[in-house]
Amino acid sequence: MARAIPAKPKRIASVRTSPGGYFVTAAILTFVSLVLLRTHHDLAALVLTAGTWSIIPLLVLTDRLHFDGQTISRTGLVAFGSRLLRARRQLTTVEEIERVDIATRRTVRRGGSVRYRYRVEIGAREQTFAFSSGGARFRHMVRSLLPRILDHKVDARALDLRDHLRDAKSVRLEARRLGIAPASVLEQTAERTRNRIDQRRREDADPESSSDEAERGAMLRKAANDLRVVGRLRESAEAFRRALLISPREPWLIYEYARLLRSQASAFGDARLLGRACAALRLAAQRGGDDPRLLERVAESFLEYADPARAAKVFRRALEVDQNAYRGQLGLAEVALIDGKLAHMIHHYNEALRTAPDKAAARLARREADYYARLNNDEDYLAAELRRMNWLEGSGRVQQLAARVSFAALLVALVGPSINQVLAGVGWALASSSIIAWIGSLATRKFLSGRGRIAIGDF
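The chain above was modelled as a monomer; its predicted structure follows.
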């Protein structure tokens, strides 16, 4: 009897990988073709330009991440070449994921609105998968993948994307349905006046409509977070204000409001808003003192706001409530790193290993514990790692300086011929030298970014 072949899982989401590296390569090769053209190697410049702008877009279009509900895999020409060289596919299962980190960048700011670009980085064993926001495919991947990853592996931004990432149009329509005015109207209305109007409405409301008020408060809270994630910060603040009037003692709501204040402080450069965000975090920790998950997130926010002392205090409170709080141990290890206390770091990573909810989390804790234990016990290894970190930091400074000089020199090289040929020659020479320095520093950073090898037990 023929043996049944299991059906191949169907892909439920697909997205392009982050194309930043490809664009950097294309820019460098384009500059090389300009140098060739200037030195009268016209054919070589034509071939290099044509090859660059025909192959690079093809690599970008084919390099994709796929998710079938259990496995993340990378496909495309680059993945195929890597598979031939390393004799293994670039894939991982959801259970093997160790961490999910989100990087955020503001691209446009208009009035009370900010346009965010998100970069999702997924770490699993020795592999890293990254993709950036842009369109419905990104939202579909986030909604398909992140809900399947346990909370202890994701940071606060990942939780925001998982629960509140929607397209901007539907978020605006929901806000309009709840009666939240656009940012231009809110700017012209004083907050004190809006509070007075809402208070009068609450006093005139029917006492039997408390259930309706609670439902409306939940809808306002969701709309506020949705607006915050898409960057409509002023409308989000109005939704939070109305939700807090209905549920002023809800600790998770206060925590989410603190995150909004942090976003506003960063977007508008207002230190007073950052102070208000810290005050809201303290209130959330006070109101939710028996919820270890909330305390962990509040402490992580304090750590993000560069307040490690208060973060350590809240992390310890979380561990008092739940001695198996995995992220609490990781947070205390990070605080110990800031304070330069290696022995404390090793202790907290070992405790995280003891309380790890799954094998992937245990593998991450074991790797960190072994690395810092070797730093603490092996002076030669510590000296080598310190040299590596110093060189890595120096390479980063060289890369930033070379990038600025190359842009300025390239401008001089392009404008110079209309002024003086000698000036143009100096510009081309300086641009070439700075770009070579930039490439060298980039390669050095790639080489030095990895830690010294440590034998890790297989979990």
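The chain has three domains: 13-164, 168-196+216-379, 390-448.
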